[in-house]
Amino acid sequence: MRILIIEDEPNLRRQLKRTLEGAGYAVDTAPDGEEGQFLGETETYDAVVLDLGLPEIDGLSVLRSWRAAGQRMPVLVLTARDSWSDKVTGLDAGADDYLSKPFQSEELIARLRALIRRASGNASAELVAGDVRLDTRSGRVTKAGEPVKLTAQEYKLLSYLMHHKGRVVSRTELIEHIYDQDFDRDSNTIEVFVTRIRKKLGPEIISTIRGLGYSLEG
User: Fold this and answer.
1) Which of 58, 76, 92, 195 is the most buried (most CB within 10 A)?
2) Nearest to 1 by CA among 16, 29, 34, 23
3) What whole-number distance in Å separates Cα of residue 197 and Cα of residue 151?
4) Could you tell me the residue range of the domain that residue 137 belongs to?
5) Is the same domain home to 58 and 146?
6) Looking at per-residue confidence, does 21 or 122 come out higher?
7) Is the same domain home to 65 and 115?
8) Last residue of some domain: 94, 119, 144?
9) Cα–Cα distance between 132 and 154 in angstroms, integer?
10) Do 68 and 114 sit in the same domain of this protein?
11) pLDDT per residue over 169-179, tens digit each?
């Protein structure tokens, strides 16, 4: 899953990036509203962490612009403002959730997990495909009740497919959602990771739809 952080305070921005990367997300960052708005319009994200008090363009204006343009990615508003009126304004502008500073990293991650699950139509923290289960809270994957060890990139790919179970996901979409913007998109690593996952979880877990991409049923 790929996250965009728009935060002008350098130390907090770096801390958030490290925290979310440690939780298994691909992360892009922007230091102001202008760059953040551009990234949100031109790149693909599973969720955005958006500060309201931004230079260049304020966070509410960025959010309103995205929603007016039909951008539907979940947005978690992050701000030092804690009055009820600011919360209402942010939610009315199109935010999906709201977290006031200071906050605990665990709560931020939990809220993002919930936003991403809801956006993909999954109510439970545990994703299931046949006898394969993926716990989004712990990152634990099991097959027929037995733990399976995946690398970080294998986990990211499997997680994205399980969040979007039942539909065909193109190679381009997978690259856009599990890597940050600096990744070489001509790489063949997706095919390599699919092969490795099949070896660990069984050849039937991921279907190749020729010319279109991959599908995970279940």
Assistant:
1) 76
2) 23
3) 10
4) 126-215
5) no
6) 21
7) yes
8) 119
9) 14
10) yes
11) 999 999 999 98
11 to 15, 134, 155: CA distances (angstroms): 6, 33, 28
Q: How far apart are CA 75 and CA 80, in angstroms?
A: 16
Please state, in angstroms and rounded to a whole number, the distance separating the CA atoms of residues 193 and 125. 24
Residue where a domain stops, chosen among 119, 136, 161? 119
Shared-domain flag, residues 90 and 13: yes
Distance CA 113, CA 1 (A): 10
**Strand blocks (E) in the chain:** 2-6, 26-30, 47-51, 75-79, 97-100, 126-129, 132-135, 140-143, 146-147, 207-209, 213-215
Is the domain of 13 the same as that of 94? Answer: yes
Model pTM score: 0.86
How much is the average pLDDT of 118-140?
Answer: 92
Residue 78: what pLDDT? 86
What is the SS3 assignment for 69?
A: coil
DSSP state of 145: T
d(CA 124, CA 32): 34
Instruction: Give strand pairing partners of 98.
Output: 77
Per the DSSP assignment, residues forming a β-bridge with 214 are 169, 208
Q: What are phi and psi of 198, to 5 degrees?
A: -60, -40
